[in-house]
């Protein structure tokens, strides 16, 4: 067994990660930190863990050595303290956006500040196993992935890597947990309930990851918008792709089965009838799966790709656990077997 700790375990992603680690057969949870809730029992913040653990939060200043340290801290914290954290653990998986991008100048463009530890960027592998499994297996440091970016990248990657996307226009609909557990006006119930709110018609930060991983360019052949809806968990990405070749439906399915047919956490949705013939985040809640499907527009060169996932799982904590399994050479599905619920 390995000893793991979580820095920043009081947030939604940190709590989800702790839930998963407590059920993982190869892991012992050593410490979990929270500056706000130090010395309080974990279940006071994450009530679903009542009866599962008696561990208390500690301050990050009290972190001791461990084999693997997960960082679930707000953006900007890990890059300021990465050297300190690296002294505590041989391996690190960072769920924040601090080490997702290879180019330091991209942080100035997308996050509005210079990166505080640019020399560390090339030490981290972008933590999406479907694209970077071999790199993650060799890595000591792995980044997290943005939930919106994960859905969009998994939807488009088989086409982009073959140079088949001339242009993509993508809209994601997202649940409220994507905004984290800090209350604010946007999450206030009278303001959030019943909302269908476009909060990022252009310029969403996750575009940086999409550009990096897909090779498309924002504002040229990649366009992205995000809308908040009345859902707690989930991301639904709808990508209108204009193709460089006139592919038939059969040819598209061949491409996606070739790339994802053996992927343990990508579900290809190929139903022609029924209520769930397209991917839907609701039935993936609590699971690490990403559903991917498509509809071919027979009237033109448009292919509509649809991807769905749970933003706290495949979009954050579940994907991090999957990356951990890859790093240690364990079965990739270990601790992630939950298939989702229906109905919910």
Outline the structure in words:
Helices cover 27% and strands 24% of the residues. The protein has helices at 12-22, 42-45, 77-86, 104-111, 129-138, 147-160, 189-192, 207-214, 249-260, 317-327; strands spanning 2-7, 27-33, 57-58, 66-71, 89-94, 124-125, 141-143, 165-174, 196-200, 222-229, 235-243, 266-268, 290-296, 302-309. α1 crosses α10, α5 packs across α10 (317-327) and α6 (147-160) runs parallel beside α8 (207-214). It has a 7-stranded parallel beta sheet, sandwiched between helices. Strands 9-10-8-11-14-13-12 form a 7-stranded mixed beta sheet, covered by helices on one side. The protein starts with a strand and ends in a 17-residue tail after the last helix. β4, α3 and β5 form a beta-alpha-beta unit. The protein folds into 2 domains: 2-145 and 316-327, Rossmann fold (3-Layer(aba) Sandwich), CATH 3.40.50.720; 148-309, Dihydrodipicolinate Reductase, domain 2. The mean pLDDT is 96. It is of the alpha/beta class and 344 residues long.
CATH topology of the largest domain: Dihydrodipicolinate Reductase, domain 2
Whole-number total of structural domains: 2
Q: What's the number of helices?
A: 10
- The helical percent reads 25-40%
CATH domain class name of the largest domain: Alpha Beta
List its salient traits:
2 domains, Dihydrodipicolinate Reductase, domain 2, alpha/beta, Rossmann fold, 344 residues, seven-stranded parallel beta sheet
């Amino acid at each position: 067994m390995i000893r793991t700790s979580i820095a920043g375990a009081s947030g939604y992603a940190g709590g989800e990660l702790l839930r998963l680690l407590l059920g993982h057969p190869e892991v012992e949870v050593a410490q979990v930190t929270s500056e706000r809730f130090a010395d309080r029992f974990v279940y006071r913040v994450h009530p679903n863990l009542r009866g599962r653990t008696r561990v208390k939060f500690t301050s990050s200043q009290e972190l001791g050595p461990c084999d693997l340290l997960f960082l679930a801290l707000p953006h900007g914290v890990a890059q300021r303290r990465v050297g300190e954290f690296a002294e505590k653990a041989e391996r690190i998986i960072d769920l924040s956006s601090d080490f997702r991008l290879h180019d330091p100048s991209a942080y100035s463009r997308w996050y509005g500040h210079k990166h505080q530890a640019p020399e560390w960027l090339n030490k981290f592998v972008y933590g999406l196993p479907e694209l970077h499994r071999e790199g993650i297996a060799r890595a000591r440091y792995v980044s997290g992935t943005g939930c919106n970016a994960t859905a969009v990248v998994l939807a488009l990657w088989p086409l982009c890597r073959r140079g088949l996307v001339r242009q993509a226009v993508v809209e994601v609909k997202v649940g409220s947990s994507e905004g984290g557990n800090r209350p604010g006006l946007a999450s206030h119930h009278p303001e959030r309930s019943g909302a269908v709110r476009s909060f990022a018609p252009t310029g969403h930060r996750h575009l940086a990851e999409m550009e990096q991983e897909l090779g498309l360019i924002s504002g040229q052949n990649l366009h992205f918008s995000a809308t908040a809806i009345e859902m707690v968990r989930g991301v639904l990405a709808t990508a209108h792709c204009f193709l460089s070749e006139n592919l038939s439906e059969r040819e598209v399915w061949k491409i996606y089965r070739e790339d994802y047919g053996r992927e343990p956490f990508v579900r290809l949705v190929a139903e022609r009838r029924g209520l769930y013939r397209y991917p839907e985040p609701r039935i993936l809640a609590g699971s690490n799966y990403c559903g991917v499907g498509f509809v071919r527009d027979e009237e033109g060169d448009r292919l509509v790709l649809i991807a769905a996932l749970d933003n706290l799982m495949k979009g954050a904590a579940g994907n991090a656990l999957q990356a951990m399994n890859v790093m240690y050479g364990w079965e990739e599905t270990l601790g992630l077997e939950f298939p989702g619920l229906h109905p919910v």
